[in-house]
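hey
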């Protein structure tokens, strides 16, 4: 067995023309919001944290090393590609996803109505049953940048089993 922890945080800004925020995409789901992530790729913090959890569990380089924000090829890139690469590396290392436990921390908008779609997307990209993926939404009780709606934070724990 292997365990990995993934973490990501993205600053949220108003969408153009008021700011630089991109559409808010979490777990491959576009969520209606006046704010979105400031990011080099599409800014999907949930996919990024899952990617890092998987890579960490097998001791591979992290998402920033594999897909640097200094590489123009990653500009605006769909983060599902990062997740697919992590899944391929997990399989090559001789493992498969046992389960993922994901915690999204976002003051607004509420992610509850979107959790099932996020779970389904993650499971589809990784080629596992949705029952192996859990997504929880939390707020930060109006404390710090996350609680003030200026950031989104994600934690993911991944358990890998021998294939």
């Amino acid at each position: 067995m292997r365990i990995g922890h993934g973490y990501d945080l993205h600053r949220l800004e108003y969408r153009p023309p008021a700011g630089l925020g991109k559409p808010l995409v979490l777990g491959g789901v576009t969520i209606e919001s006046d704010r979105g992530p400031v990011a080099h790729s599409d800014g999907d913090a949930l996919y990024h944290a899952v990617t890092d959890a998987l890579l960490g569990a097998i001791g591979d380089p992290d998402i920033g090393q594999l897909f640097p924000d200094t590489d123009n090829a990653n500009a605006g890139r769909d983060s599902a590609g990062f997740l697919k690469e992590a899944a391929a590396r997990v399989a090559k290392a001789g493992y498969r996803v046992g389960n993922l436990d994901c915690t999204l921390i976002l003051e607004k908008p509420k992610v509850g109505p979107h959790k099932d779609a996020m779970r389904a997307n993650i499971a589809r990209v990784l080629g596992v049953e949705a029952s192996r993926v859990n997504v929880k939404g939390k707020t930060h009780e109006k404390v710090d940048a996350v609680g003030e709606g200026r950031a989104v934070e994600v934690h993911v724990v991944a358990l890998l089993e021998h294939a």
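Helices lie at 45-57, 63-66, 80-92, 115-126, 144-147. Strands lie at 2-14, 24-26, 29-31, 35-37, 95-105, 133-138, 151-162.
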